[in-house]
């Protein structure tokens, strides 16, 4: 039955061996992602909330995507490759994209364009979700990235990370250009960098105190906020300049993500009641599904334009309320999907499929020189 559980949920494999601190961070990241997508869709909120406060909230949430990659890199950097996880990941994405398409057809909001049908069948290669496409590629490359993590010395690792930090996160911010093909943080370059960064933290057991993590996070957030406000008043018509530092591959956003990741990693929550532990891990297990559901390009505008319509008179509280409802409803939908998958019997008994997966795993892991 374990094979039926999608990869995003199987990251929580053994509740007894894994603390819930990083799972709480996973939940926090997804809540911030949902609310930020709401703000991206309702820029006309400026009539009811000062734009500075909207930008301040968005600046404080700049860490979300980067922190997600750090979490996954931290747990994947010393694991063996499993082709079944890729298959299950694709299955979950296909299931949700098809479900969204059928929902929109049923409500009369969808169309029968060939491109939309192809998006349902090939959601990853057609980049229905930019994040998932890059993440899928990252997982394919992970066994070979792990070779670097495993073989490299600490001195070499520090030099490598120093070079990559300057090239990937500092230079693009200085010139406000995609100088080295980093795609503004929306490409594989940043994901590999964050994966290596997480690998460094885990391999050499690096620790940052809670106090320092908080101070660093606040300082980087204030710098981001200050830069946005400065450019808002000096170049009010140039959005690109206003958000030149607010980018996934920006140095201050990366610092935010490392600070918030370190903070939760060092929490070491003890004596957590079993029901709380189970609840947190269950919610964390559906965050991936929440992302797939609420962030579907066909559904995103429908959520904030039809289900939770926002007008120029809407308050910020409406966005908060909408975020909570979307998070809860999407989470329940994904829980139902999990139960549906778990009712499917016999996949683990398909010896030919299992043997095929085992052969692929063996070939990849041997080529990656896993012991």
In short:
The protein has 371 residues and is an all-alpha fold. Helix content is 70%, strand content 0%.
Describe the structure.
The two termini are 27 Å apart. This protein has helices at residues 7-10, 21-41, 51-60, 64-76, 83-106, 114-121, 130-151, 154-175, 188-203, 210-234, 239-242, 251-265, 274-285, 287-294, 297-307, 316-343, 351-367. Residues 1-17 have low confidence and may be disordered. The longest helix has 28 residues, at 316-343. By secondary structure, the chain is mainly alpha-helical. Helix 2 (21-41) packs antiparallel against helix 4 (64-76), helix 2 (21-41) packs parallel to helix 14 (287-294) and helix 10 (210-234) packs antiparallel against helix 12 (251-265).
- The helix/strand class is mainly alpha
The total strand number stands at: 0
Low-confidence stretches: 1-17
How would you describe the oligomerization state of the chains in this entry? single chain
End-to-end separation:
27 Å
Please provide the ordered H/E string of secondary-structure elements: HHHHHHHHHHHHHHHHH
Relative helix content: over 70%
Q: Give the helix tally.
A: 17
Largest beta-sheet details? none
Instruction: Give average pLDDT, whole number.
Output: 80
């Amino acid at each position: 039955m374990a094979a039926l559980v999608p990869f995003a949920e199987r990251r929580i494999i053994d509740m007894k061996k894994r603390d819930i601190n990083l799972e709480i961070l996973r939940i926090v990241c997804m809540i911030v992602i949902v609310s930020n997508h709401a703000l991206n869709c309702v820029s006309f909120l400026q009539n009811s909330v000062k734009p500075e406060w909207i930008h301040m909230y968005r600046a404080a949430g700049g860490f979300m995507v980067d922190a997600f990659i750090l979490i996954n890199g931290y747990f994947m950097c010393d694991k063996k490759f499993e082709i079944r996880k890729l298959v299950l990941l694709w299955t979950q994405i296909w299931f949700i994209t098809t479900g969204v398409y059928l929902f929109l057809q049923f409500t009369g909001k969808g169309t029968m364009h060939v491109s939309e049908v192809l998006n349902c069948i090939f959601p990853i290669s057609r980049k229905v979700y930019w994040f998932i496409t890059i993440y899928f590629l990252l997982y394919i490359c992970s066994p070979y990235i792990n070779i670097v993590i495993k073989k490299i010395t600490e001195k070499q690792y520090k030099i490598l990370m120093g070079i990559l930090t300057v090239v990937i996160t500092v230079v693009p911010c200085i010139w406000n250009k995609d100088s080295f093909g980093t795609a503004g943080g929306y490409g594989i370059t940043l994901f590999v960098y964050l994966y290596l960064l997480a690998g460094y933290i885990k391999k050499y057991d690096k620790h940052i105190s809670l106090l320092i993590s908080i101070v660093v996070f606040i300082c980087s957030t204030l710098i981001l906020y200050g830069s946005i406000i400065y450019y808002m008043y000096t170049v009010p018509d140039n959005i690109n300049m206003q958000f030149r530092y607010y980018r996934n591959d920006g140095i201050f956003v990366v610092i935010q993500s490392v600070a918030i990741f370190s903070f939760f990693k060092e929490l070491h929550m003890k004596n957590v009641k079993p029901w709380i532990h189970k609840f947190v891990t269950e919610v964390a297990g559906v965050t991936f599904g929440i992302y797939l559901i609420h962030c579907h390009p066909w559904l995103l505008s429908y959520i904030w334009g039809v289900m939770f319509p926002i007008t120029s008179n809407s308050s910020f509280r409406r966005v908060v309320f909408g975020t909570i409802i979307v998070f809860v409803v999407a989470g329940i939908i994904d829980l139902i999907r999990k139960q549906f998958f778990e009712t499917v019997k016999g996949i683990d008994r398909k010896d030919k499929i299992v043997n095929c997966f085992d052969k692929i795993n063996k070939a990849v892991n041997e080529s990656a020189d896993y012991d």
